[in-house]
Amino acid sequence: MNRKQFVKLACLGTAAAGASGITGCANRTIANKASATGTAVRSDKAVFVPSGKNRFGEQLMIWGVIPLQIKISGKDTDGSLFVFEHVGMSKGGPAKHFHYQQDEWFYALEGEFAFEVGNEKFILKPGDSLFAPRMIPHVWAYIGENPGTLLLAVQPAGSLEEFFMKSCKMTSPPSPQEAESLFAAHGMKVVGPPLSVS
User: Fold this and answer.
1) pLDDT tens digit sequence for 101-113
2) How far apart are CA 156 and CA 104, in angstroms?
3) Looking at domain 60-194, which of 3.40.50.300, 1.20.85.10, 2.60.120.10, 1.10.260.40 is its CATH number?
4) C-alpha to C-alpha distances, 118 to 14, 19, 52, 88, 105, nearest whole angstrom
């Protein structure tokens, strides 16, 4: 083989290797879209949710008390992210708890919210945000006079969305024993009561 043929062959080999690398990346992306059952679980399209609406068009209330609007479902992200709003909140909030595997981010859109994360206390007003790391007990409550709105993101999604859907079938807050069991079944632990709000 002469030098010209060698260079030509080497260039073709490099191009083929590069193309297979690109193909490999594409195949990896497609593989990442599939769950263990082999069905696509990550959205491959934009997810648009109009203001004041839920991702799936339902009107949801957790325990008949806390309004819920899903904005990005864990089903859209293959479980990597879950985003939702509590719109039109009245006073109160959930029991003190922590998540074993999820980090949680809160962003106040309307009204004032009291928070405790670990030993720290915060008041969130519109535009304020707060990050609560996994395994750290936290509790929050809406304390404003007019209805409030809180935007939340949980990463990874875990089974929090499933927890909410089960809680939305309940018409009143669970007993402490029911709450402990429900939270535990979805990767959380109740460690105290809700914040007292006057």
Assistant:
1) 999 999 999 999 9
2) 9
3) 2.60.120.10
4) 55, 51, 32, 27, 15
Contact in structure between 191 and 97 (CB atoms under 8 Å): yes
* 84 in Cβ contact with 68 (< 8 Å): yes
Q: Starting from the edge strand earliest in sequence, which strands make up the sheet with 148-155, in order?
A: 60-62, 66-72, 82-89, 148-155, 103-110, 129-132
pTM listed for this prediction: 0.78
Strand partners, 138: 97, 117
Which residue from 161, 152, 111 is spatially nearest to 132, judged by alpha carbons?
A: 152
DSSP state of 40: B
Residue 80 DSSP code? S
Total number of residues shown for the chain: 198
Strand-strand pairing, 120-124 and 95-99? unpaired
> Tokens in use for 121?
């206390």
